[in-house]
Each structure stands twice: as structure tokens, then as C-alpha cells.
Specification:
This protein is an alpha/beta fold. It folds into 2 domains: 9-47 and 292-388, Alpha-Beta Complex (Aspartate Aminotransferase, domain 1), CATH 3.90.1150; 51-287, Type I PLP-dependent aspartate aminotransferase-like (Major domain) (Aspartate Aminotransferase, domain 2), CATH 3.40.640. The protein has helices at residues 9-12, 20-31, 50-60, 75-89, 105-116, 132-139, 164-169, 188-201, 230-233, 240-243, 258-271, 277-287, 291-314, 338-349, 375-388, and strands at 37-38, 99-102, 122-127, 143-148, 170-176, 204-208, 234-239, 252-256, 327-331, 351-352, 354-355, 366-370. The strands form 3 sheets. The chain has a 7-stranded mixed β-sheet, with helices on both faces. The chain is globular, with a radius of gyration of 21 Å. It starts with 8 loop residues before the first helix and ends with a helix. Bound molecules: pyridoxal-5'-phosphate. The site of pyridoxal-5'-phosphate (PLP) has 14 residues, from helix 5 and helix 10.
Amino acid sequence: MSIKVELAQRVKSLPPYLFARIDQMKEEALSKGVDVIDISIGDPDLPTPGHIVEAMKRAVEKPEHHRYPSYIGMLSYREAVADWYRRLYNVELDPAGEVISLIGSKEGIAHIPLAFVDKDDIVLCPTPAYPVYSIGTIFAGGTPYFMPLKEENNFFPDFSQIPESVLNRAKIMFLNYPNNPTSATATEEFFKEAIRVAEKYNIIICHDAAYTEIFFDGKRPLSFMQIEGAKEVGVEFHSLSKTYNMTGWRIGYAVGNRDVIAGLGKIKTNIDSGVFQAIQEASIVALNSEDSVLDEIRNTYQQRRDALLEGLQSVGLKAFRPEATFYLWTRVPEGYSSEDFTIMLLEKAGILGTPGNGFGEPGEGYIRFALTVDVSRIKEATERLKKVL
Ligand SMILES: *Cc1c(COP(=O)(O)O)cnc(C)c1O
């Protein structure tokens, strides 16, 4: 006799998965033999650079790496992270207490509320956004308070719109710049304002910096850690996933405030056992890569950005010109919802984007395109768009 398997309330209460219908439609199109141009996913199509793969091959041969790793990461890995921050951002970090390894930054983002959020505490989450901020909050028993990112505000949250009673109960504020899905980049003024709010209401800022290295026109975006006072109020999450085309490797890090890093470390010590050391060793090689390696990746995305922007403009679609990230946040034409337009593009043109409302209600009216196909496919997409619009 089988038992009755009952999901926990926290799983039952998860918001519906808005992309499920789109996924199903994509499968149907593929099974009918449609040549789908999938520009919906934020996963680089480019391979991990060869010198990193070679370093991994050497590292995996070493028996000392076959044992349990350190919970917080090898010291040599944490030193490589600190060196990277010094070289690229002129930020000083103590590898012993201000850096921790993560099994991808998603892992750290999902777990950090467990360290600081009690029942009835609030976590400030941007929307539209990467869903992990609010889901991690819910799993920890906290309550997300959504800060809308609106076009008229350059996709920054308007802190003056958050009620005092909410700010008083808030323990964590998640921020993400360069932003997924809007591609907005932060200004120093915005980060300073966030720090003032954090200081006044005692809120930990968790900045997700997954896209700082995917930038264009030679303009490197800010790291939150560069802003005066940042280390006193928060941490920054980073990952090798997008920077070095290593999404499958599962490695990242958090840096910044040592008490916050220690809190996250306590959770991780009790849940996971760290990152495979061979991956850490290959990641040290990645972090020490010549600038030319990243320049080449950025160049590829920039060519794609320019091609897709031009294509979208040529059919009258308005997309924001990203200075960073590999996304084009695009307004859907008059008369369509995000979902209607996504479905129309798939059915009529075999082009798959991500409906903006899937990232949260204020994303309604937008569609996100990812620059994760080559220029020839982008040109093909443009030709198809011309036929249907
Ligand atoms: C891709 C992504 C991440 C994390 O990726 P990991 O592979 O888990 O390091 C984090 N935040 C945002 C906004 C992302 O798009």
C-alpha cells in the first residue's frame, strides 16, 4: 500500500511556474520539426575557454582533490577571488574571513535567508527578477516584499515608496546590477542610496553581481564592493558561470561583510560539503585569465547585441540598449500581452523569447531576448520578424 505523499506548505505555496506552458509549446514545435531559434535562456552557448578545461584535466588527476573539500573553499581559491577583486575593482578583501566559495551563486542566494531571516521577517526583493531571491525567502519562512523596477525609474527600486513598517521588519535587501532581466546597470548614486537605507533600518544588502563581466563598449560596470560603506552593510554574490562560460561547473563565491559571510558559512557547513577541489583549482586558473580571454567573449556578445538591436529596431520593436548582461529587454507591440506576443513569435516565426511577466508582474508588457545564439541566427531571426510584423 502506498502512503499519501503530501507536499509541505512552503512547496504548495510556490507561485505557479509561468514558463511551463511556453516550455510545452517549444517541445511541440520541435517535435513538428520547426527550426526554433531559442533566445529565451540565459545560458552561454560558448564553451568554457580551453586553458580552464586543461587545468581541470590536470586537477582531476590529483588524489588530494578526491576527498571532502573545505566547507568555505580552499584558501588558494579564496585568495584568487581576493586578487581578482583587487585587480579588476581595486577592492581589498581578506581571503580568510571576507570570501566564501559557493556551489554556484544560486546556491548562496537561495541559502542566505536561512542564516538571517526568522518567521515574520521581511526580505526586500526586486521584481521583475531572478526568482531565487523571493523563493529562498519563502523557504526560510520569511515574507518577500516586492520592489517594482520600473522603466520610468531606470529600473531602480524607489525606496521612498516602501512603507516605514516594512523597512523596520526587513532583514535583507536583494539587488542585482547589471540586472537580469532588464539589463539596467547601477549608478554610484543608486548604490549609495541603498547603503543609506540599509544603515538606517539595519538591513543586510545582498548584491547579485552575476553579470558585471559581460559588459560592452569597454565600460566596466560597478561592483557594489567599490562603494564606500558597502562592506559594512552587505555582501556581493558572484559566479564564474556567466563570466567564463562555466554554468555547468557549479562554482561561485560571496564576498564582503565578515559577519554575513560567517552566517552563510554556518548554514552551508550544515547542508553541503563545499565545491569539488579540482573545480576550485581550475577556477583559480580562470580567475587569473589574461584580459584577452574575456575581451573575446565580450566582443562576441557585443556583435550579437548590435545585430539583434538593429534587427528589432528594423521591425519597430523598442529594446533597451544594454551596457552589460546578455539580454535585450524589449517592449511588446501595442495590443499584445507578454505571453500573447511570446506565443505569436513562436507559432508564426519559430522564435522563442521569455515573456517578461514570468519574472514578476511589472515585467508585463516586455519580452526578454538572450544573446546566446550566433550572429547568423540573429540575422535569420530578423528576417523572420520582418515577415510577421
Ligand atoms: C545566472 C544567474 C545567477 C547564477 O548563476 P550560478 O550559475 O548559480 O552562479 C545568479 N543571478 C542571476 C541574476 C543570474 O542570471
